[in-house]
Task: structure prediction
Amino acid sequence: MSIQIFILGALSEGNYYPYDIKKRIGKHLDQTDAKITEGTIYYNFEVLLKKGLIEKVETIQTENRPDKTTYGITEKGRHSLEESIYKVFQKFTNVQSLYAALVHLDKVDNQKIAYLIEDIIEKMNKRLEYIDSHTPQEIDLQEDLKDALFLMRDHAYHSIQSDVLWLQKLLHHVQRRVLKS
Result:
């Protein structure tokens, strides 16, 4: 879904060839481990085309070269982009799942995004409280297993805590966008 959000977001700004989109995605994903192949891009263009979210704008034919097709977004695609961005926040799984949506915050109601982020932070804080309140008691386990459980708990707690701090920064950023509009 995030690739489709990125494609729709780029096409909402103008018409592009799939290869142009691949280069744009590459620029945004350079800091991550994600790798996008041309096959993935072309497959997602086909999916979006079949759904009526994008349309072919122009096909350029030249000798000894494959056809180059330019695509644009449809009104249905603009609506789908907006709904997809909201859905990413509503179904939050991890910080990385938000990356494609972050690039296109200018295409949605940032007040609504702020509420969704506040909801995510609240849920994450409840997870932290749960971990705090369920510290493993002294139970009869092998020492290695007990150490492993404490290390896993510690990692989970600090990972969630780190995500909450990042989400608070994101919330502050989105709230500033709301004030500017």
